[in-house]
Amino acid sequence: MYQQMIFVNLPVNDLDASKKFFTELGYTINPQFSDDNAASVVISDTIVAMLLTKPFYATFTQKEIADATKTSEVLVALSAPSREKVDELVDRALALGGTTSGRTQDHGFMYGRAFDDLDGHTWEIVWMDPSAIEG
């Protein structure tokens, strides 16, 4: 059965530092789609973050590349299997040089935190109680 995939393409300042950041968060790099200009970060079977050097990223757009440390160009939201896993991933990102983004959101049935990666891209990690969406 076909499963649609998402490829999030993000410009980065230092490809090696970004690869290290994401692998230390627990993700893997797919070498088949990685080279000196890009790294394919496998987040799940259907989610891939393509980290592109800024010169390479510029070949795909005629628009100015946003400085994600100053403007918001995307919010990437990922689900987590539990509240504890939200905290674990965000705390690890912060320990690796990421920065806190926004406030912790706790609505009882839904819990989320966010961090900015080394280039300022915002990653929201969210858990939702499955029973809250079943009814």
Q: In which range does the helix fraction lie?
A: 10-25%
What's the number of extended β-strand segments? 9
Largest sheet: 5 strands, mixed
Catalogue the unreliable spans: none
Query: If helices are DSSP runs of H or I spanning 4 or more residues, what is the number of helices?
Result: 4
| Beta-strand residue fraction | 25-35%
Rg, Cα atoms, Å: 16 Å
The secondary structure category is alpha+beta
Cα separation of the termini: 26 Å
Average pLDDT figure: 95
Description:
With 135 residues, the protein is α+β, with helices and mostly antiparallel strands. The chain contains four helices and nine strands; from the N terminus they run E-H-E-E-E-H-E-H-E-E-E-E-H. The strands form two sheets. Strands 5, 6, 7, 8 and 9 form a five-stranded mixed beta sheet that branches. A four-stranded mixed beta sheet has the order 1-4-3-2. The longest helix has 13 residues. The two termini are 26 Å apart. The mean pLDDT is 95.
Write the layout of secondary structure elements.
Elements: E1 6-12, H1 15-24, E2 28-30, E3 38-42, E4 47-53, H2 54-57, E5 75-79, H3 83-95, E6 99-100, E7 105-106, E8 110-116, E9 122-128, H4 130-134
Parallel strand pairs: 1-4, 5-9
Antiparallel strand pairs: 2-3, 3-4, 6-8, 7-8, 8-9
Q: What's this entry about, in short?
A:
The chain is of the alpha+beta class.
